[in-house]
Design a protein that fits this description.
Length: 417
């Protein structure tokens, strides 16, 4: 048993400093003086304690291939085409090494749960999945990684992928992915959605699709997905990522489909860090931000999370699995600057993805799993503004990462000597 004395919490019933006590992999007590009888209790001196972040939308199989990707036009289509040659050269070991590097970086940045889309198609077949599963196993002592079988190249337009998706789920993929807007025509898009939900029903899996990642407001596969959720009763088990086209759609459609998303208990994952870079490439003057209708979804009560999406690949040259950075960039892009907005940003990288994962033991409360991070600042607002990594990160009650920063100004002779 161990504890932290005098921490501050960003949410919950407690105001001021409290103690947090951990036994095994569980938080067992939270409150003023709770650690008074705990021998191994450290004084946090009023610093902020947060639950570890959750990145519920990342591509670990593609990560860190930027230097191998040929030049392209910077668009989504350009990146998909450019990465195909890289994918042909993947080995299980190359995917494993790159994925492991990003998982470990994410843990250092306070993220201990990641949900990774993994390409499943006739180009790479199951090599990307095998590599990410191997990395997940190697990192099981510091993080929990879930995999999504993701048909990046389409299903109808890439014959053979439907069988590979089934094989991926049988081989250990946790979630069924999809990308219906990538198909040619409405009929193929509907068939794509049907295939994915049939597979999810057959193997009792949740669904997490890339949906309408385009500037074209006439692309409307989000409603196809939402209708399927309602028809099959897959409430609370479906996530739609990106949903950029919703911002360009007319208000009547947007209101109708947002209501369906809310009724189906869907989660929407916006990925501003990547979509700011790849969307709006054809715009001049007023350039679209590549975001979904975050304000409208928020007002309707739809569960909304932010994701890293890409790390150093053909879509996005930046990123390091740092959800604090994702939160800051998302706040800029979505005009989230008020006090309640700051709380919304925090929820979008903690509570909202936890809801998408259907976690019953997340947070800082008795019986929650002790995935925690101790920040250097005393408030969430300052933590988001200052962008300093957590001092300590715990996974299942075990200390798994630490960052010590020494800063000097003016009198630096002793440091530089």
């Amino acid at each position: 048993m161990w504890g932290l004395r005098n921490v501050r919490l960003a949410t919950g019933e407690h105001v001021g400093v409290v103690d947090v006590v951990v036994s095994g992999d569980r938080v067992v007590d939270v409150g003023p003086g709770a650690a008074a009888g705990v021998r191994d209790a450290q004084d946090a001196a009023g610093k902020l304690l947060l639950p570890a972040f959750i990145d519920t939308h990342i591509h670990l199989d593609k990560a860190l291939i930027r230097d191998e990707v040929p030049a392209h036009d910077g668009t989504l289509a350009g990146a998909i085409a450019a990465i195909q040659e890289c994918k042909r050269r993947y080995t299980v070991d190359s995917v494993r090494r790159r994925a492991r590097a990003v998982i470990e970086d994410a843990v250092l940045c306070g993220t201990t749960r990641l949900r990774s889309h993994v390409d499943v198609d006739t180009i790479g077949r199951l090599v990307p999945l095998e590599g990410v599963l191997a990395a997940a196993q190697e990192c099981a002592d510091v993080a929990e990684v879930k995999t999504i079988a993701f048909p990046q190249e389409g299903i109808i337009r890439d014959p053979g992928t439907a069988d590979l998706l089934r094989a991926a789920v049988e081989s250990g993929a946790d979630i069924v992915g999809g990308m219906p807007h990538w198909e040619r025509g409405e009929g193929a898009q509907r068939e794509h959605v049907r295939i994915c939900f049939d597979l999810a029903e057959r193997f009792d899996r949740d669904v997490d699709m890339h949906v309408d990642e385009t500037d074209d407001g006439s692309i409307r596969t989000l409603e196809m997905v939402a209708d399927e959720v309602l028809r099959r009763g897959w409430h609370g088990r479906v996530t739609a990522g990106h949903v950029c086209a919703l911002a360009a759609a007319d208000d009547v459609y947007a209101a109708r489909v947002i209501e369906k998303c809310a009724r189906g208990g869907m989660t929407i994952v916006s990925n501003p860090v990547t979509n700011l870079v790849i969307m709006g490439r054809g715009d001049h003057g007023l350039i679209r931000r590549g975001l979904t209708r975050i304000a409208d979804l928020r007002a309707a009560g739809v569960n909304l999370a932010f994701g890293q999406d890409c790390v150093g690949d053909g879509f996005y040259p930046f990123g390091r699995g740092d959800m604090l950075e994702v939160g800051l960039i998302s706040a800029h892009a979505a005009h989230l600057s008020g006090r309640e907005d700051f709380a919304y940003v925090l929820n979008a990288i903690t509570g909202a993805p936890a809801k998408a994962w259907r976690l019953g033991d997340y947070g800082i409360r008795p019986n929650a799993r002790a995935d925690l991070q101790l920040m250097t600042q005393s408030s969430w607002e300052e933590t988001l503004r200052r962008q300093q990594p957590p001092q300590r990160v715990w996974f299942k009650g075990t200390l798994v990462a630490a960052t010590e920063t020494v800063r000097h100004i003016r009198d630096v002779t002793a440091v530089t000597a």
